[in-house]
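Good day; I would like, with your permission, to put a structural problem before you. A protein sequence and the structure tokens that stand for its backbone fold form the material at issue. The record follows directly beneath this note:
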Amino acid sequence: MRTHVFFLGVILIVALSGCNSPEESGTQVREICGNEIDDNGNDLIDCQDPECSDHILCNMEICDNGIDDDGDGFVDCDDQDCLDAAGCNATAEICDNGLDDNGDGLEDCEDPACADHYSCHLEDCDNGIDDDGDGFVDCADQDCIGDASCNLPEEICNNGLDDNGDGHTDCDDVLCAGSSACGTPAEVCDNGTDDDGDGFTDCDDQDCFEAVECQIPEICDNGIDDDGDGFTDCIDLDCFGDAACSIGSEDCNNAVDDDGDGDIDCDDSDCTYYPTCLLGLECDPASNFGCSLIPGSNEACYYSTSQDAGYCVDPPGTAAQDDSCTDTPECSPGLVCVNDFFGSKKCKKLCHLSGVGECELICYDAMGSATYGVCLP
């Protein structure tokens, strides 16, 4: 019986000991800071308990101090705790519209938010820097219109005077950099030297493009357009009269087989390089076109009845229309010597049989030509 009472007492003691607080039991229990329970039995729950003073859940984010107050990795307005904060819902300040866009009481350049905006920087007009960031430097910036440093007279680099009043005379003035008066000589175009130090020598230097030494002559028998004018060898008028382009005894524009080889004018191989033959032109006696294309020529185009074609004559005739004549070259250009209705030879106006408006009435086939006639009356 005594044994039973002993064990009952032990059980009772153990049971009663389980009803003590953590402090009474001597067991240290830490406060869990987000479960809404007074875990350590000090009557302070979660963030009310000093043990939670450093806990992430118990530190509010201050939205404008540049610190991650609640330790969640997000600072100020980047923290979702600040989504509704007044300072985190302001419109960005536009720095050049005259308005207080972000509502902080400061407009444009008065607002610190505009401290780095180019419109809030004045252009310094003589420091070589684009101070206001608008892409224009110093005097090229319209902000510098009227600035004293941008209204200086031109510096003359060899007169011993500070012409523009910037405190620098002649070659000491940066405006004289590159001046021939300041040690940069002009390019000599035929000495094989880069005289002006720009990396280009003689005719390769743009300063020499118009120099006589750099004008390349046309070589008339090498198959190359030496002078770059688009015409090669004898086709180039620079070669007119050159020995390489000379013709034989054939006169290439008189409608006569001068050398008796059976070929007349451009059909003759002696005339291969004759200018009008090269260009594929035949002179037109009715309009007097073709002969004057030859440089230095005073020739005029006349009609050959035997060839039914034009040929060049120098000097041209002078007889006027309806004047008497014995041969066509006596007449002025554009006329032909033919018999009139009374059998007398007169200078008459030449015309194209297929032409329109060349004559007052008609172009009459008076010569049996397939191309040319004379005007009536």
About this structure: Residues 139 and 328 are 74 Å apart (CA to CA).
